[in-house]
Amino acid sequence: MANVQLPDRTVMVWDPAVRIGHWLIAAAFAVAYLTGEGEDAGLMRIVHILAGYTAGVIVVLRVLWGLIGPRHARFTDFVYRPSKVVRYLFALLRGHARRYIGHSPAGGAMAIALPICLAGTVTTGLATIGDLTYVQFAGGPHVVEPAYAEHGDTDRANRETEDKESLVRELHGVLANLTLILVLLHVVGVGVACVVHRENLVRAMIDGRKRLPG
């Protein structure tokens, strides 16, 4: 009996920019997070900063692509009302959620929340590089002191500088941990969706193809 070639029942959903950006930003965040504790020590600090810069650039590019990219890459394709996100999550947990070709409501919400948290993490990280009191020039850092420091109150200036630095570093850590929590929730959500929809979503983010409806 001759082999019958079945028609291709998949469709291209994720373009190369979305796929490459997805894995690059995942790698950049992982490297930045794992080197965060050693960021004050030489090479680890450099790696941490470079990974943070990389994540920040990719977030900016992804936002732009969400405005001008193809259909399933655009925000208009996966921004849903919060009530619809909640209903989808409950349906997913019960095992009969509707399948979406692009981002599901939960996936769309995560595609918004993660870049926001990453942007906050990168921004506070950039602030800690200069400790809020330095402007980097080619010739080296230039100290920008509060106005009252000119009147000899350097102790007060130093205290406020330390307080600001500590606050921003703490906020940077909180946002990094919040981003990690979102990443873990994303991984769990993808796993559940793979089971419910009987679809390999990880492979789809590699080759860009998903099963057609029906």
Looking at CATH, the homologous superfamily is Transmembrane di-heme cytochromes, Chain C
- The count of helical stretches stands at 7
Query: Helix content range of the residues, please?
Result: 55-70%
Named at the architecture level, the CATH assignment is Up-down Bundle
Backbone shape: elongated
Q: What's the β-strand tally?
A: 4
Proportion of residues in extended strands: 5-15%
> How would you spell out the order of helices and strands?
EHHHHHEEHHE
**Model regions low in confidence, pLDDT < 50 over at least 5 residues:** 131-149
Mean pLDDT level: 83
Can you tell me about this structure?
The protein is mostly helical and 214 residues long. It has a single domain, classed as Fumarate Reductase Cytochrome B subunit, CATH 1.20.950.20. Helix content is 65%, strand content 7%. It is built from 7 helices and 4 strands; from the N terminus they run βαααααββααβ. The protein has helices spanning 16-34, 42-68, 75-78, 82-94, 105-129, 154-197, 201-207; strands at 10-12, 134-137, 140-143, 209-211. The protein has a two-stranded antiparallel ribbon with strand order 1-4. Strands 2-3 form a two-stranded antiparallel sheet. Helix 2 packs across helix 5. The longest helix has 44 residues, at 154-197. The chain starts with 9 loop residues before the first strand and ends with a strand.
